[in-house]
Amino acid sequence: MAKLGTHSGGLTSQQAQLRLKALGSNVVRSHQARPSLVLLRQLRSPLLVLLTLTAAISFFLGERADAVIIAVILTASIGLGFFNEYRAERTGQALHE
Question: Would you give the end-to-end CA distance of the chain in angstroms?
């Protein structure tokens, strides 16, 4: 409490007003779950970029089966990641509301 400049009785009205002016309101910013932003975050993963390049190289080198397997793994990874992250975003939005 000493570090925060308060005591067990809390802040005085004057201290609270000063802190409100200096630090702003004690509110959580509004949050909305946006599927497009979640998908973009999923697609920006360096590992997914590397796997995409690997699949493309495999495809052009004639290793079509390997390319298809990598593409299936990529699709599953992006799909599961999107589903989990979007669900978490919606839960956060519901908690905020």
Answer: 31
How remote is the C-alpha of 14 from its chain's centroid? 38
List the domain boundaries for the chain.
31-96
Region of residue 5 (phi > 0: left; psi between -120 and 50: alpha; otherwise: beta): left
- What is the Cα–Cα distance from 79 to 10, expressed in whole angstroms? 49
CB 42 within 8 A of CB 82: yes
> What span, in angstroms and rounded, lies between the C-alpha atoms of 40 and 48?
12
pLDDT in tens, the chain (97 residues): 888 888 888 888 898 899 899 988 877 676 778 899 999 988 888 988 999 999 999 999 999 999 999 999 999 999 999 999 999 989 988 887 7
